[in-house]
Design brief:
It is built from 13 helices and no strands. By secondary structure, it is mainly α. The protein is globular. The two termini are 36 Å apart.
Length: 345
Amino acid sequence: MTRARKTNLFFLWMLIFYIAGCLFVIPVLPDSWFKNYSSIVIGQSLIFIPFVLYLIVTKGKPLKDLKVRRIGVLNTFLLIILTYCMIPVVSFLNVLTMMFAKNEVSGQLDGMSNNNFLFNIFITALVPAIMEELIFRGVLYSGYRNSTIKRAILASALAFGLFHMNVNQFCYAFFMGIVFALVREATGSMHSSMIMHFIVNANSVVLLKLYDILTKYVNKMANNDSSFRELADSLNSSADSTVTFADYPLSQKLSLLSSTAFSAVIAFAIGMVVLMVIAKRCHRKYHIDCIMSSFAGNRHEMPDINNYKPGEYIEANTSEYGGKIVDFVFVTAVILCIMLIIYSW
């Protein structure tokens, strides 16, 4: 059995376990378990358990393929810049999908506004950044990678997007899945994708906290200075408003879409430059050049070892071919995800 087939079986097994948990376990749990952060904890548990069982069955072999190494302080700083270059693209895709789908994340964040800030960061950012990266850029991506890097990037990103189980999150999760895999290749370490994943998730929590701090400050100032009253009323009405994006007039939606599209294009271009700087600093620029050219249509199964420059980090395919990624098992898993997305839409 090829590695790709084993990886697909794990993905299908994890998906079935997740669906079974949602259908048979969650309905019998007390309603109090689903307040604030509990739904996130349950969701992460439903993917952590099959991951552990898979490691037990395979005697920990997938852990040997995990690329984990130090990336340095300056590279970490560049990763932060790269992440904030990708966030405008995420915002554009979020707005685009909200034209016809509900934003599922905003409801979860509203329910967590009364929680401790650091605890929110831990639950919504740190835990998913570690757990989801171990699964999607760890087990899945490593299992697909021997097929070809481009196919592995696209397949693992598709699985990552679909596993969010809603249209809104699928689009930007698929995009970020591609970016996370590219960053892992650019640095040779999963630490990089974990850092980016953490920042993307934490960004919403931080903005929510800053908004709460600003609202409290303005309300306090409004009690002593009437010039702050209008701003305070505006912030309070915005916080209490039940108006959603779907209620906006079409002209306002298109205006917001066009403005986010412009910033997304500029930020993405800058981000690609930063990515190449990171790859160069990690002595993997030729490696990334080959991957990028494969996305542009040039035939690059894996970078040619003979073309690496002295001092560059050489990473080539192993002798064991990973196998065809898109097989019956993979298609079955994708269809199951699509059915659940349609059902929840």
